[in-house]
Amino acid sequence: MNKDGRAIIIRDATEDDTEGILRLESRWIEEGLAANPLRPRPKSKFRKHSYMVVALEGDQIVGFASADLKTGDRADGEVARNEKCADVDDIYVLPERRGNGIGGALLEALVERGKAADAGKFFLEVESLDMNRAMRFYGKHGFSECPDSKSKPGNPRMFREL
Predict the structure, then answer these.
(1) Could you give the CA distance from residue 67 to residue 86 in angstroms, rounded to a whole number?
(2) What are phi and psi of 99, to 5 degrees?
(3) Are 79 and 153 in contact (CB under 8 A)?
(4) What's this model's pTM, rounded to 2 decimal places?
(5) Taken in order 12, 28, 149, 147, is the CA torsion positive or negative?
(6) Interval 17-75: pLDDT, tens
(7) CA 123, CA 85: separation in Å to the nearest integer?
(8) Fewer CB under 10 Å: which end of the chain, C or N?
(9) Would you say 60 and 53 are in contact if contact means Cβ atoms under 8 Å apart?
(10) 74-108: per-residue pLDDT in tens?
(11) Rg (CA), the chain
(12) For the chain, which domains are there?
């Protein structure tokens, strides 16, 4: 149950969810919330090294989140060589369903799957036109701003160590 008492199921996305996820991505684009314009992605979004979760209300997908698993090989010192980490790619919840804990549940589902894959750190780059709200959301879920040089101006990079 989410905050408004509706039953929400968070589960791994399947190929059968692709069309529903693409519809949500189209809504995200229409909203104009992303700081960098999104383009709908092809079905190949379900790459082998990625994982994606969806939030279902009944049989409707009301949100999704995705992350890429990586192995450390970065010269910037964020991740030790051969250390596993995850980069959060996307989190989106339909506007009419926001504020009910769905985004947080999706993010925590990504973290649980990362833990299961031995990822020790999670990274994300905040790209939102409502930066204050996004930063509060990620901070509430244990993410801190990275003190690194990889952040683009206006798009802070954040991390969470597990």
Answers:
(1) 6
(2) 85, 10
(3) no
(4) 0.82
(5) negative
(6) 988 988 898 888 888 766 555 555 555 555 555 789 999 999 999 999 988 888 765 54
(7) 8
(8) N
(9) no
(10) 544 566 667 788 888 889 999 999 999 999 999 99
(11) 15
(12) 9-161 (3.40.630.30)
